[in-house]
Specification:
Layout lengths: L4 H16 L5 H15 L5 H13 L4 H39 L1 H6 L1 H32 L2 H17 L3 H19 L1
Length: about 180
Amino acid sequence: MQKELKFYIKLFRVTFLLSAFTFGGGYVIVSLMKKQFVDDYLWFEENQMLDLIAIAQSSPGAIAINAAVIVGYQLAGWLGVLTTVFATILPPFAIISIIAHFYQVFIENQWVAWMLEGMQAGVAAVIASVVYTMIKDLIKQKEKYLILIFIFALILVSYFNFPISWLILISLCGGFIYSYLKR
């Protein structure tokens, strides 16, 4: 997929900013990616984006990097992958380098501790928003079996401390069986 330089610059900028302002882990990036790639730039349909995110989170490694690889490849082939991965890695690399250099100062600063506590609340809200959106979409689709998988998974994780890797494998198998039988 050969694209114009302007497209690659835009793809780099969007992915760089997503990575630079996504605090709290990879799951926070999901709602921001949806907003940018689906709502703002119309690069993907919502269902397609959810599928890409599902693949990214079920693959080994950091979800942000996995998503960057998948999104970059879907939009612009291997050059898109290089663009999105570099843009995704650059902000955390710079931030972690700075924090590592000033670690002792950061760890002893009360203002930094308060900011991190505030960020935890914000991150929890963003994750809750993603979960709410995904549940709402399941309900809209009226897919009772998928809603049951969600409820089952939630109970296993919340009350029985079930291993996430097993949960993903079971959900993957359940989704495969459901899709096969639905055809």
